Amino acid sequence: MTHSARPPTRRRRRPELRHWLKPQSSRFLVFGICFGVGGLAGGVRSALDGKGISTILALFGMGILGVLTVVSYFVNYEDRRGRR
After folding, report:
1. Confidence category of residue 63, pLDDT binned at 50, 70, 90
2. Separation of alpha carbons 32 and 20, rounded Å
3. Mind listing the pLDDT tens digit for each residue in 72-84?
4. In which band, very low, low, confident or very high, does the pLDDT at 10 lie, cut at 50, 70 and 90?
5. Cβ-count burial of 69 within 10 angstroms (0-12 exposed, 13-18 middle, 19+ buried)?
6. Distinct helix (H) and strand (E) counts, the chain
7. Distance between CA atoms of 17 and 41, rounded to whole angstroms?
8. Which of 16, 22, 66, 70 has a CA that sits 20 to 30 A from residue 35's CA?
């Protein structure tokens, strides 16, 4: 049995893990903005209401994750723009 020199078809090729970690869609940007604003505002509101520390930290963690998503979108955008 001989193997062809062609690369595998698109259906059989599995995307790399880095592909899933790079946000490329504007939907992902909107999701990150909403997640960041909601998490940070919720954390501040929980702190002012005197909720438990676990609730406050969870909401701040969600906010930080959203902010990191937005930052990673723009870093990836600059990388894609620079390659053209």
Report:
1. very high
2. 15
3. 888 887 777 776 5
4. low
5. middle
6. 3, 0
7. 31
8. 16
C-alpha 62/C-alpha 6 separation (Å) is 44
Residue 38 has pLDDT above 90, yes or no: yes
Per-residue buried b or exposed e for 18-45, using 16+ beta carbons within 10 Å of the residue's own CB: eeeeebeeeebbebbeebbeebbebbee
Q: Which amino acid is present at 51?
A: K
pTM: 0.69
The Cβ of residue 5 has, within 10 Å, a number of other Cβ atoms equal to: 5
Q: How far apart are CA 64 and CA 59, in angstroms?
A: 9
Distance, in Å, from the CA atom of 69 to the CA atom of 37, rounded to the nearest integer, reads: 12
Q: Say how many Å lie between the first and final Cα of the chain, rounded.
A: 41
